[in-house]
Structure formats: C-alpha cells, structure tokens
Amino acid sequence: MCGIVGYTGAQNAAPVLLEGLKKLEYRGYDSAGIAVMDQDRIEVSKVRGRIAALCEKTRDGASVPGCTGIGHTRWATHGAPTEENAHPHLSNDGRIAVVHNGIIENYIALREELLREGYHFLSETDTEVIVHLLEYYYRGNVRDALIKTANRLQGSYALGVICADEPGKVYAVREASPLILGIGLGEHFFASDVTALVSHTRSVIYLEDGEFAELSADSVRVFDCSGREIAKKTTRILWDVQAAEKGGYEHFMLKEIMEQPGAVKATIAPRIRDGKVLFAELEGLVPHLPSIRKIVITACGSAYYAGCAGKYALERLCRVPVGVELASELRYSDPLIDSGTLVIAISQSGETADTIAALRECRERGAATLAVVNVVGSSVASLADYTVYTWAGPEIAVATTKGYTTQVTVLYLLALFFAEHLYPDTFGLGRMAETVQTLPRRIQEAIDMNASIPALAAKYHRSPALFFIGRNTDYAAALEGALKMKEISYLHAEAYAAGELKHGTIALIGEHQPVIALCCNPAVMEKSLSNIVEVKSRGAEVLALTFRNNQKILSVADDLLFIPEVEALFSAAVEIVPLQLLAYHVARENGCDIDKPKNLAKSVTVE
Ligand code: AGP
Questions:
Q1: Does one domain contain both 99 and 112?
Q2: pLDDT value for 1
Q3: Do 392 and 476 sit in the same domain of this protein?
Q4: How far is the C-alpha of 375 from the C-alpha of 400, rounded, in Å?
Q5: Mean pLDDT over all residues of the chain?
Q6: Which residue is closest in CA terms to ligand 1's atom 2?
Q7: Which domain holds residue 177?
Q8: Fewer CB within 10 Å, N or C, the chain?
Q9: DSSP classification of residue 567
Q10: Gap from CA of 303 to ligand 1 centroid (Å)
Q11: Is the preceding omega at residue 178 within 30 degrees of 0, hence cis?
Q12: Same domain, yes or no: 564 and 524
C-alpha cells in the first residue's frame, strides 16, 4: 500500500519526484525515499515519516542532482516504518534501485535462495528480493533481467527501476497494482495514480497486468511479459488540475464533501434519458437478467455500507434476494454462488485486496460479475465482466465521502435499470428515476441547511462514545455515519439497528450519552420515535437527523440535523451528508489529521 513515481527528462528529477510523492501521500505516509541517477551514479535519500521530512533532508531535492529518478511513499506491511525499510532499495553493487507498491507473496523462499547465493539484505521488506534478483539476472540488459525477475515473483507489484549502466532510462512494471505512464515533451513519468501526473501532462498510458515500460527522455516503449513490444493507446485526462488539489478548502475531505452535488450529478447525468435509466456498458448483461436468481454485493468498509444502503432499492424494485457480504469474509465462507448469481463488487479505488480476491472467487464459481468502481483502469474494473464507473473524480482524503454517495447512487440506478428490463410495466419507475435525478440538488440542500454543525461538534466532541441508531434505510446510513466518525475523529462510534437496542445495547445508555438518531424513513417513523423516547428516558442526549417539518421528532430531540424530504428508498445518499460534516467538524475540534487518519491508508491493497 504505497505510492511510486518515476521521472526522466531534462529537469532535475528530485523536485519532480517529491512533488509527485506529495500527491500520492494518501496511499501511505510512514516513510519515503527517492533514488536519482547522475551520469552513471545512483544516489538514494530516505526518511522515516512524511514527504515533508524528505523535502527537508534533500533541501527540496537540491542535494540529489540528476535528471532520472524514482520515488516511493510507504505504508508499512513487511517490516516497521524505518529508514532501512523505506524504498528505494539498492542492489548489493549499488547499480540498480527499485521502488515497489504491492506484496511479494513468495519473498521468504526467494530471500533464502538469494542468501545462499551470497546476497546481503539490509531491510525486512519483501521488496528487497526484487532488487537482488535483478542484480542476479542482470547480464548487461535490464529488460531481460526484468522479465526473468518478474517470472520469479508471486503477488502484486508495480515497480520502478533504474540501473546505473543505463543512464537516462527508467523502467516501470505492472502486475496487479496500478501504474500509469505520463507522456510529456522531452520527458516521461510514471506514477501509481494520475493525480501525481496531471500537473505535468494530461496524456497518459494505462499499463495492464504483465506489461512493462522502458522510458527515456524521448521515447516510451511498452512490452509484454515475454519482451514483445506492444502498441498502447494514449488517453487524455480531462480532469481539471484543480480537481486534484484542495481548491481553497482546509482539507481534501471538506472539499470532497462539498463536491458531492457535482459528483452525484456526473454519476447520474449520462444515465437517465426521458425517465429511463440507460447503461450502455451493461447491454451484454441485459439478456441474462431474467436468469439471475440472486444478487450478492461484496465490498469493504464504506463501499460495503454503500451496498447495505443500495440493497433496499435493488430488492424492492427487482424482487430478487440481495445479500451484502464483506469481501474479507465472503472468500473464506465457501459461498453459495453459481451461474445464477450476479455479484456486484464495489470499490472506490478498485485496488482493495479483499474485494479483488472475493471477485476472483465469485468468478471461479461461475457468477456474472459487475464492478462499481471510481478509478478507471483499476484492478477491480479489469477483473469484472461488466464495469460501471461512478465518475466521482479523484478522491484524496482517506475517509471516503463522494466515493460513497456516488456508489450508493449507482446502486439506485442499477435497481431502476434492472427493474425496467425485468418488469417494464412496473408503475412509477419513471417517477423514481426523476427522484434520483433530484439527488444532487437535495445533497446541496442538506449541505446548506445544517449551519449549526460546527456548534454541535463543539458540544459533542469530547464524548467518549457516540451511538448512531436507525431502522431500515436509516440504519444503512447510520452504519456509514458511525464509520466516518470513528475513522477521522477517533471517537468510539457504533451504529445499531434501533430495534436492537433493547436486546442489550441499551445497557450502555446513561446520563448525557449522545445518541444520533436517524429518522428519515416514514415507514418506520413511529418506531424510531419510540426508540428515541426509550433512550431519552435513560438520560441520553438525542441529536436527531430528520426533515424540517417533522414535528414529532423535533419536539423530543435535544439537537437537530436536517435533510430535505427524499423518498426513503433513495435517502441514504442524502442522509449521510450531515453526518459526514458532523464527523469532519468533530475531528477538527479534536485536532485530528483529517485527511490522513492514523493507522489508515486510502487504498488497502493488503488482505
Ligand atoms: C472509508 O472512509 C474507508 N477509508 C474505507 O472503509 C474504504 O471504504 C474501504 O477500504 C474500501 O475502499 P475501496 O472503496 O477503495 O475498495
């Protein structure tokens, strides 16, 4: 779980690498390093800690001259976050340097073999076997050594390699980890994510698994795993450069919360025409819809909670049972999945290891697979039979916001799309599509109508625990609301189905215990009201999330958060917004590192 960058051209490489690494810091931030080649010498500089420390150590790159280099920002998996374990790693002769994102599964066996051959290891990382293997196979041709080395590696890897015998050249290798090439004028780049490239170029090449690239200042050559040169398509990045920056907000998370009306609009707009939902990318799936006996949604974290929210619309409209399974559990559960199952894998990054593994498992069992993904060309997207992109744009903050709302929105659209094909005569589908089209406006209203959130955060930020309760669709939104709170504010936050309180949890409710009660589903409103009364009679302080005109709730709650009225089946995408803002302001009150919460990383590429 790391970010890698590479550069070759006429500029000093180090400042370019450092700038790229800052953009990738969300992928891991416990240590960092760069290796720069000057003529035929490689100089490595590494630090424990963040890129800022590396900038300081290298005087913003000035102390490491040279026009070709590679860089790395790390989130430790094998070995503690120390300078020794930080990348780049050097070969024993100091002539080859490697950066790596991913996991080498067979590194122990390779390490033993290399030790027997006389190689010395300086780190505890799995990565170091790669650079020693390269030295072992190197006979004057890096390309050949790369092919031989790649043949020995099991696992996932995106690699950046430089060799002192080939001044001006950078190699990039992809196997099950993202890697993108940036095409400039007289300069070339690679990076784990386009956000590290867009300030230099908008022309990119997405490497596929098993491919590697040889970059020099004036050429880009891509090869398959047998060394055969292949032609690749150049793609133009249309994002605004600003989209990958903070745009004036204090944190990426706040910026991304505010971007949600636009992001959800981008998700919906190309997919609804004249009251009908259209997915050109799913045409091949349509003839198989009648034979689907169940739908299984699989994902991790917030993406899993998006599945919990979308399940209601899918089941209600498609009349097919929908199971929502944690990807990390599904793959070990001998799941009852066969060719009559449609598996929907949801992932913002498209690189979550558990989701990838669950998807593979389901494919092997014969299921049709559909990926709901934000990052174009990611592993989940390439694995599935069908891919629907959420079009949320780059999400930098570790805590997902627009990633979640666009995932939920895609599930609403899928529910309508499947229903249109399965039961074209169903009354009201067109009206529901219109309701979904209003979501961007309602999300904006939910942002605008909650000016009291900073004050509420100041009131509740010291609470040792927060309980989120709700029923049905409100419960689904509560799950994500509690996750947002705990991951960025470090408060203990738990979501409970409100009806479950009396089966045990209510024992934890005492004087001044804050309870955040979601009351936006009219079908269960009376029951939700009873649950509020239950906790209030035990001394709880209730912060209710509801509609402005919901007098019953207004009269019993201590504090209020509002959303505009939305049909319950589609309300989770709106309900979550005030809860994201509440979590944000509580975390801010607590002085937390909001965009990079402790112990977390944006893309969880380890199981
Ligand atoms: C969300 O705020 C989390 N940081 C995390 O739960 C995330 O949703 C999860 O790791 C799944 O990520 P993905 O959508 O990229 O697969």
A1: yes
A2: 58
A3: no
A4: 13
A5: 94
A6: 399
A7: 3-243
A8: C
A9: -
A10: 6
A11: no
A12: yes
| Ligand 1 atom 10 nearest Cα | 301
- The answer to whether the pTM exceeds 0.85 is no
Q: At residue 242, does pLDDT exceed 70?
A: no
What pLDDT does residue 417 have? 98
Domain membership of residue 550 (yes or no) is yes
The answer, yes or no, to whether any atom of ligand 1 lies below 6 A from the CB of 444, is no
Distance 73 CA to ligand 1 centre (A): 19
Q: Which residue has the tokens 């040889």?
A: 214
Distance between CA 328 and CA 387 in Å, rounded? 21
CA distance 113 to 351: 30
pLDDT in tens, 281-331: 999 999 999 999 999 999 999 999 999 999 999 999 999 999 999 999 998
Query: Same structural domain for residues 370 and 509?
Result: no
- How many Å apart are CA 308 and CA 81, to the nearest integer? 35
How far CA 98 is from CA of 69, 101, 105, 113, 171, in Å, comes to 10, 10, 17, 19, 9
pLDDT in tens, 493-518: 999 999 998 898 888 898 999 999 99
Residue 448's pLDDT is 96
Any atom of ligand 1 within 6 Å of the Cβ of 348: yes
Are the CB atoms for 2 and 28 separated by under 8 Å?
Answer: yes
Mean pLDDT of 418-427: 92
Q: How far is CA 353 from the centre of its chain?
A: 11
Task: Using the mean position of ligand 1's atoms as its centre, give its distance from the Cα of residue 259 in Å.
Answer: 18
Torsion of CA 512, 514, 519, 525, to 10 degrees: -40
Work out the average pLDDT over 360-368: 96
* Residues catalogued as catalytic: 2, 602
Query: Is residue 352 in contact with ligand 1, taking CB distance under 6 Å?
Result: yes
Whether pLDDT at 391 is above 70: yes
Q: Decide whether any atom of ligand 1 lies within 6 Å of the 355 Cβ.
A: yes
> Which residue puts its alpha carbon closest to atom 7 of ligand 1?
301
- Count how many domains the chain has: 3
Shortest-distance Cα residue to atom 5 of ligand 1: 301
Residue 134 CA to ligand 1 centre (angstroms):
34
Picking from 120, 160, 118, 161, the residue whose alpha carbon sits closest to that of residue 142 is 161
Give the atom of ligand 1 at the shortest distance from the alpha carbon of 375.
Answer: 15
User: What is the arithmetic mean of pLDDT over 470-485?
Assistant: 98
Q: Using an 8 Å Cβ cutoff, are 134 and 96 in contact?
A: yes
Look at residue 264 and tell me if it is in a domain. Answer: yes
Q: Is the CB of 31 under 6 A from ligand 1?
A: no
Q: How far is the CA of 187 from the centre of ligand 1 (A)?
A: 34
3-state SS class at 348: coil
